Amino acid sequence: MLGVKGRVGHISGLGDDVTQSERFFLGGRDVRGFDLNGIGPRDTGSGGAVGGNNIYSGTIEVVSNLGVTKDAGVRWTVFSDFGSVWATDFPSGVTKPDDETMRSSLGFGILWNTVIGPLSFYWAKPLAEQSHDNTKTFQFSIGTRL
């Protein structure tokens, strides 16, 4: 099975700046190979993500059975993820560049539907990253979409 998905977003305040909790964040399951909230502008003091007012992301993924019976619920996947988050109104203490430079990754995974819920194991390598991004090669989840 071939899957393609994408997301685009923009947020702006009505006369006020957009607060950090209202901004977009990117990484983790959205762009595998990057840590949760690992993409985008960061606070220069703490190194934490500050989010952005603009976002785009996408995935191209192939999923197939792992050579075992379909009833076993084990599948493999090969994927490429990409995206960016930017535009923070440049509050003081935010690292630059704060631009729409695309980040991307390539990886594979094992997906398993178990009696306790779906398990997923992903290995991904960033192909395009910025120096302030946080990467994560291996990701594991239980009980979320497969």
Number of helices: 0
The arrangement of helices and strands along the chain is EEEEEE
CATH architecture: Beta Barrel
Distance between the termini: 13 Å
- The global form is elongated
Low-pLDDT sequence parts: none
How many structurally independent domains?
1
CATH level-1 class = Mainly Beta
Rounded Rg:
17 Å
Mean pLDDT over all positions: 89
Give a short account of the largest sheet: 6 strands, antiparallel
Helix content: under 10%
State the CATH topology.
Answer: Porin
Write out the CATH superfamily name: membrane protein fhac: a member of the omp85/tpsb transporter family
Q: Multimeric state of these chains?
A: single chain
Task: Explain what the structure shows.
- This protein has 146 residues and is mainly beta.
- The chain has one domain (2-142): membrane protein fhac: a member of the omp85/tpsb transporter family (Porin, Beta Barrel), CATH 2.40.160.
- It has strands at residues 2-10, 54-65, 74-86, 103-114, 117-128, 138-142.
- The protein is elongated, with a radius of gyration of 17 Å.
- The chain starts with a strand and ends with a strand.
Brief overview, please?
The protein is mainly β.
Task: List descriptors.
mainly beta; 146 residues; 6-stranded antiparallel sheet; Porin; elongated
Tell me the layout of helices and strands.
Blueprint: E1 2-10, E2 54-65, E3 74-86, E4 103-114, E5 117-128, E6 138-142
